[in-house]
């Protein structure tokens, strides 16, 4: 589980997002990060039983993202993220394709997964697979268990016009217009502090698994 001390560190960091405070509290960061690494290690072990492409030996250090922000191209110059994030795939967090994601934040934690902003060729392949296998895709994303948990796909990145080669009356146009193929489920951060926190996250990842298989087949 994620310890309350980990969330407390993130809360304090949000109020004191500067290098001087961070250096004074580096020990707290290291303890919080170790807590997250341990938690992600447990997730990997359980996820490997569901998704055979994920090795039980995957090092959680390859999955947990650094807390340092890249401020080079951002108007927000605060140096640190106020969350811990973990991306899980065969390659850990550095995946170009489908992956699972856990966002750990004191106010807005969530589980998610899919292909975030795939490159042009991969995006084309996913759209083609939805076009060719629309019934299979809809069976996955509109299944009652999946729909109740995730709702609609994330809508942050999508075309305002029709994608090239597809008409407005295509039965799956609302999916074909997407530029990211991801689903997200918000979690109460308190869920992550409970003894069954691993099970709660794995519950979301397990529901995502058929969607992940579809995406992998599309780009293979």
From TrEMBL:
> What Pfam families does the record tag this protein with?
DUF2461
Question: What PANTHER family does the annotation carry?
Answer: CHROMOSOME 12, WHOLE GENOME SHOTGUN SEQUENCE (PTHR36452), DUF2461 DOMAIN-CONTAINING PROTEIN (PTHR36452:SF1)
Q: What is this protein called?
A: TIGR02453 family protein
Q: Which organism is it from?
A: Daejeonella lutea
């Amino acid at each position: 589980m994620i310890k309350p001390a980990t969330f407390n560190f993130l809360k304090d960091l949000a109020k004191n997002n500067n290098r001087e405070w961070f250096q004074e509290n580096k020990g707290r960061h290291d303890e919080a990060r170790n807590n997250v690494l341990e938690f992600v290690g447990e997730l990997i072990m359980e996820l490997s039983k569901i998704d055979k492409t994920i090795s039980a030996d995957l090092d959680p250090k390859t999955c947990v993202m650094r807390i340092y922000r890249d401020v080079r191209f951002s108007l927000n110059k605060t140096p640190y993220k106020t969350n811990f994030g973990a991306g899980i795939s065969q390659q850990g967090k550095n995946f170009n394709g489908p992956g699972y994601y856990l966002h750990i934040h004191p106010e807005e934690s969530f589980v998610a997964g899919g292909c975030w902003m795939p490159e042009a060729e991969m995006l084309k392949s996913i759209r083609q697979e939805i076009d060719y296998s629309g019934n299979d895709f809809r069976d996955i994303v509109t299944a009652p268990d999946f729909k109740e948990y995730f709702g609609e796909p994330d809508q942050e990145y999508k075309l305002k016009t029709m994608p090239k080669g597809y008409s407005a009356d295509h039965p799956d146009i609302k999916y074909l217009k997407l530029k990211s193929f991801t689903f997200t489920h918000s979690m109460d951060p308190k869920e992550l502090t409970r003894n069954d926190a691993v099970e709660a996250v794995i519950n979301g990842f397990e529901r995502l698994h058929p969607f992940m298989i579809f995406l992998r087949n599309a780009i293979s």
